[in-house]
Amino acid sequence: MKKEWFSTWFDSPYYHILYQERNEQEARAFIDQLTQFLHIEPTHHIMDLACGKGRHAIYLNQKGFSVTGIDLSPQSIAYAQKFENEQLHFFVHDMREVFEERYFDFILNMFTSFGYLENDAENIRAFQAAARNLRKGGIFVMDFFNTNLVLQQLVAYQVKSVEGIDFEIRKFEQAGFIIKDIQFEDQGKSYHFQEKVQAITRSDFQKYFDAAGLHLKHIFGDYHLGDFQEAHSPRMIFVLEK
After folding, report:
1. What are the residue boundaries of the structural domains of the chain, listed by start?
2. What is the pLDDT of residues 70-116, one digit of tens each?
3. What superfamily would CATH give domain 5-145+201-241?
4. Does residue 67 contact residue 87 with C-beta atoms inside 8 Å?
5. Global pTM?
6. Which residues pair with 218 in a beta bridge?
7. If DSSP codes are grouped into helix, strand and coil, which group holds residue 62?
8. What backbone torsions phi and psi does residue 112 show, to the nearest 5 degrees?
């Protein structure tokens, strides 16, 4: 069976090289504001859904919260598990499957860690699994880019140099996906990866919410929790209640 692209690219060391400069200060400031807005308490249980190497889960735990991180990447989870403690745990798990039914008070899916599946049916399956992981009255936060704005601002070609590697990056829309085509050479060997993120619109997301029995309470447009404006907000941050 052909592997899904994210199960290989996210496990590649080159993925982490290319994206190593991600803004930690911005991410932590967003988490600070979000936890205050949601009134998360130390007694609550949080899931970091598609947690990667656990940078957000680790920070949430440092703030005194009980956090479980799940991700499909064994290498990312193996790294994150080095930081485990009594209130911080990481597991290899597919978001399309229920992890622990009616256990979590909050589920956070941060920084566009969604849209990698093949179709609406798979997306709905992931939302339904997340809803089943939540207790009644629990909150699911889905942070995704503002698709309409991203499509308007696609940069067709750029070269990004990191650690002596020149990553050639091409972006385009194809069959409902935003494609990032990545080519580079390292130590005499050529590499080629593609990222495929579904161009999910706000109305598409509403279908997923409805199918999972989740009620939209708020939608923010940026990491300062500003109001969502479809014409210029960089993010769609959905706050959903079970």
Report:
1. 5-145+201-241, 150-196
2. 999 898 899 999 999 999 999 999 999 999 999 999 999 999 999 98
3. Vaccinia Virus protein VP39 (3.40.50.150)
4. yes
5. 0.89
6. 239
7. helix
8. 55, 60
